[in-house]
Amino acid sequence: MKIKLITIGVYGFDEASFFQALQKAGVDTFVDLRRRRSVRGAAYAFANAVRLQARLAQAGIPYQHWLNLAPSQATRTVQNQADRAGKTAKRQRSYLDQAFAAAYVAECLAPADAAQVAAQLPADARVVALFCVEKDPAACHRSLVADWLHQKLGWEVNHIVP
Known about the structure:
This protein is α/β, with parallel strands linked by helices. The chain contains six helices and five strands, in the order βαβαβαααβαβ. Helix content is 40%, strand content 14%. The protein is globular and about 45 Å long.
C-alpha cells in the first residue's frame, strides 16, 4: 500500500481553516499522535479529542490514536528543559532539540515495526494525516514519525502549515 502522509498541527489554524486544509489535501485517515488529546485555550477546543473525533466523523474521515508513537512525559521533559534553557515558548519553538529527538527515537521508533504500524490503517487509506499540536513540523515529533515512515516504507510526506 502506497500512502501519502500529511502532517498537521493545530496552532495557527482556526476550526474552519483546519478542516478545510484536511479536505484540500484529500485526507482519508486521521492519526492523532498526542499522549494527552486536549489543547489549552478556547480557540483550539475543536482539537480536543471528543470534538475532533465528532467533526472528523461528520467529514467521513476515520480517526486513529497511535499512543505508542506519543512521547512519554519523561521524553517530553527533555524538550521542555531545552525550551527553558533557550528561553523558547513551546508555541514559538521552530525545531526539536537533538536530545529530545534521540530520546524519542529510542523510546518510540526504535522498538516499533513500520509494517505493523502501517497495518493499523484502514485497507483503503491513501492520504493519512499525522496530527499533533505544534505549528512548525520541525518542532514536533510528528515530523520524526513521518520521516521514519518515509525511510522505512517510502511513503511521500507533505507538511501542512497555516
